[in-house]
Amino acid sequence: MSYETRERLSLSLRYALLILIAAIFIFPILFMVMSSLKPDLQLLRDSASLRAFLPVGDISLNNYADAFERVPIARFAFNSVFTTAVSVGASILLNSMAAFSFAFLQWRGKAFVLSLIIATFIVPFEVVAIPMLLIANNLPWIGPQGIEIGWLNSYHVQIIPFIADSLGIFLFYQYFRDLPDELVEAARIDGASIWQIYARIIMPIAGPILATAAILKFLIMWNAYLWPLMTIRSEELRPIMVGLQYFFQLNIAWGEIMAYLSMVTIPVLIFYLALQRAFIESIATSGIKG
Amino acid sequence: MKKAVSLLIVVIMLVTFSGLASAQTELSLWYHGAGNEIERSILIGIIDDFNASQSDYTVALEEFPQGSYNSSIVAAALAGDLPDIIDVDGPVMPGWAWAGYMAPLNLSEGALDDFLPGAIGSWNGEVYSVGLWDAAVAIYARRSDLEANDIRIPTLDDPWTGDEFDGILETLQATGEFEYAFDVGMAWAGEWYNYAFAPFLQSFGGDLIDRSTYLSAEGVLNGDAGIAFGEWWQSLFERGLAPGTSQDGADRETGFIDGRYALQWNGNWAAITALDALGDDALFLPAPDFGNGSTIGAASWQFGISSSSKNKEGANAFIEFAIQDEYLAAFSDGIGLIPSTSGAAAISEYYSEGGLLEVFFELSNRQALVRPVTPGYATMGLIVEKVFADIANGADVQDTLDAAVDEIEQDIEDNGGYGFEM
User: Of A31, A77, A80, A246, whose CB has the highest number of CB atoms within 10 Å?
Assistant: First the structure.
């Protein structure tokens, strides 16, 4: 076998493997979208064959129309977009500031506080959910009727507890730490204040890690389920993931579920694709894995 | 001057009446049916009627999706934020009552006289909840299949015996026309296992727990009856008569309608689909009698009052208003479930005499047995759910039942008897 043939064979094998891996990831999405176009019985019958991945049979957009009738999708989508956007923006600002402080400022107990923050990685959200609920229920807030006690059933209870987050701080810290000290030193010599160094020197070159932190926070907030379940009573304030439960009746509306999931997944894909280049760059340059 | 006096009187009247209007007490009602438009519209109709029927209370509805409703209630209880009226799944009620989430109902004498037993949620000698409907399970069959194989059609008074039923399954399987003779619904892992399969165990003479004390399962779950049930249950799968735990959810939904399963153990909520597909050929048959009577599960969603409600009188008034026959029948007509009273059944579309689903009302009335009425059911249910799956998968029957008994009794002990005298 000649060298060229071996190379070609090797390349073909690699492509075959990559296509197989791509198919493993693409087929569930294809299944979801195709199923969203089929009536329930046909969807279930097709699910055991390759027809599940094809737009065949009785195809229509009825499931989408029915899903809109069953669930106030626009309201839920607005709630999710609003809480996610505010959380992502606020968390990038707060976490990057905290990381900046850990990376570039000198203050007593810095190492200890940083290790405490990193230690919270190992505590799953489910463990702290109930204490958080009890705390949120007793916190004051200034509302239309003056000072009120309790944050439950509000937008802010869905946003504020998730702004500061140890993973975000750690990601920024790790990225900042690898930046050359000369950058900061030079700015200081030129008379820049701490805020100016943060805003004009460090953040403009933190694009890749900004994208990573934004994607990770976006996913957490967009997929929020347990916390809204515990804290939100009114339908007007519910996020989109809780809406998925609306379809699980005695007779489950599988077609509508697939339609709803297709609609819910699209913003995630768009957000990821928009930031994909920076995300990959961040992983490649800093060795961070999301 | 006269004009000024008249104006003053009008103003005083307006202030007085607006004061009266705002004196109405708001009752909060949490409901599990978000996403079910028909159910919602009927409930809103009842609320509107109630609000218009008197001037003391107004009911405000908050809806939650069923799958996450219990978590929302538990979180609200932790936060001290329960509503006045809650709805609760029948088997969950004792747990919430024991945990102090619920208060007993205080309805008029005789208000529940006509109710199906499964629609009344009693615990510790008091009624805590009442259901606007119930559900029932039956054997789905095709008349044509039974007649083609000379199989008699059982009745409520003369159900198939255990041996007869087993022989029928063998006969149907031997025809070669079906992948499986009997689909019990193993794909529906979860509460379905206890709701649907425990009645077989009870018909054999066993149970999940000794209901006279609610403290021990010894000899009840793992006694001779329990073992006989376990061996029959396991043999269903070993003989290839029923699809096992690896059953695909899609097959569960379509297998019977498509003719791949001869018989199916299913609830009344699936009956309309079967009737649409099979028409007059569809039959809904009573559970077989394995020696201790035919039994099916009971108790669906019910209304109750939270213990923290400051308006229990109003909450009771609303519940009593909501359980009128016309509303029970409206729910039944809308969502196909069994009305809770014979009066409502008589005026309902599906369950009145000659109605398409009439048989389910009598099934519920005569064969229903509620799941163990104890706060311990939450844990017990999970343990026994695993028993049904493990035995179906070939685990040793005696060992599996003994281990389950130990687990159940340990849990009861750990929880100080769940309110029962130890």
Answer: A246
